[in-house]
Amino acid sequence: MSFSHLGLAAPLLEALAAKGYAEPTPIQRDAIPHVLEGRDLLGIAQTGTGKTAAFVLPSIQRLVASAKRPLPTHCRMLVLAPTRELASQIAESARGYGKFSRMVVATVFGGTSINKNRQDLSRGVDILVATPGRLIDLVEQGYANLAQTEILVLDEADQMLDLGFIHALKKIARMVPRKRQTLFFSATMPVAIRELSAQFINDPVTVSIKPAATTAERVEQHVTFVNQAEKQALLTLTLRAPGIERALVFTRTKHGADRVVKLLAGNGIASNAIHGNKSQPQRERALSLFKAGDVPILVATDIAARGIDVSGVSHVINFELPNVPEQYVHRIGRTARAGASGIAIAFCADDERPYLKDIEKLTRQKIEQRPLPADFMQQANAIKSTRVAAIGADPAPREDRQRQPARPRATHAPQATRGSAQGGPRTYANASRRGGGGSVGGGGRGRSGGGGGRSSAASR
Ligand code: AMP
């Protein structure tokens, strides 16, 4: 099936051709005709399915058809997203898809200048992509007005709830007109999300794509059991192996991400960290170096990595396992984008075994175990001693001391349905050994019963 069968207008087909998309993804095929008809939509799908185009393309067509002009400070379409990265990416996509339809697109999110937001909104925009907190600030200060919103999109609603945006979302619901079209997307659909969706959507069409298991099936996955203290050495070996083009490494905490970057630098491997303590320019720089392949190793926390859309991520390495199994599926979905295949490697310490079990239960797969190389301890010691020489201290025992025991996991019913920017040389590319390759890490904190609150978001 081609895009033209979905009823999309010529300027949009032209934009799709410019992007080189040959045919719609399943969510685009199922959602676009309904959105074009003006129906509300409940989309159960995660990043990587092509859902952005599924809501942006038909919405642009409707905005063009209704031919209204935005009033100063108003927007005609409002897209709410949980993180700045996701908001930026949605806006970038909207600009691409709307390039022949003359759409004015703006983003507002925390960490950027509020004056710039004011300027961007002053003449009104067609499409506004926003994180909830900053948007409310702007509305309350009179710099944004939502009364002209024709289309409202909530993207990654489950993440917004996890980040404590529930009150903000309810507030925004009161600021937009009752008569509007609403498109509500979430990767998972627990009761809390279903209840939230009911407050926004009216007689929706439901489109459910890619239950958690499907991504997991497309990605080649391994797990290696390894002591926490040896993970850094295993990571170094893994990254030195040939075949790693672009690797996303997941840690549980911001501090953990910084430590991994530092220790890798000590082994001559350049990487960058991306997490909530980094400034917006730092995050953007790390992402663009990663995208360009200049520093092809990015160490991220779960929240910071949400919505990262980079094609060509060859490996996802779970340095620590997440204690919320859906998070694992989100993580490994960063590779295997839009139908490509990828490799996910997990490093599992003893206290993370229960998390592994939960993941296997959710994905309905047993993850293949890869033993450590026979001479792993020798190699690990060699790596540690070179690092000592490089950075003048032995970080491993310190790392071990600092590590907090993983918290017992809260009961969480799985949703079954569904180097620092030094830009050094890619030293691993020259190495010949494959380093075993386990993956998965994470442990630690999970969703705290749907609450979280902004303070917990800020800590990730
Ligand atoms: P999303 O789920 O919206 O984050 O999209 C995931 C990735 O798939 C993005 O890199 C899109 O540019 C890409 N994509 C979206 N639709 C298509 C399509 N029909 N064909 C090929 N790639 C697509």
List the helices and strands and how they pair.
Blueprint: H1 10-19, H2 26-36, E1 41-44, H3 51-66, E2 75-80, H4 84-97, E3 105-108, H5 114-122, E4 125-130, H6 132-140, E5 151-154, H7 157-162, H8 166-175, E6 181-186, H9 191-198, E7 205-208, H10 212-218, E8 219-225, H11 231-240, E9 247-250, H12 254-266, E10 272-274, H13 280-292, E11 297-300, H14 302-305, E12 315-318, E13 321-322, H15 325-332, E14 342-348, H16 353-363, E15 368-369, H17 376-391, H18 395-402, E16 442-443, H19 453-459
Parallel strand pairs: 1-6, 1-7, 2-4, 2-5, 3-4, 5-6, 8-14, 8-15, 9-11, 9-12, 10-11, 12-14, 13-16
Helix pairs in contact: 2-3, 3-4, 11-17, 15-16
The structure holds adenosine monophosphate (AMP).
What value does the Rg take, in angstroms?
A: 22 Å
Q: What proportion of the residues is helical, as a percent range? A: 40-55%
Number of helices: 19
The strand count comes to: 16
Strand content: 15-25%
pLDDT averaged residue by residue: 81
The profile of the biggest β sheet is:
7 strands, parallel
Hetero ligands? adenosine monophosphate
Distance separating the two termini: 42 Å
Low-confidence runs: 392-460
Order of neighbouring strands in the sheet with most strands: 3-4-2-5-6-1-7
Structural class: alpha/beta
What global shape is seen?
globular
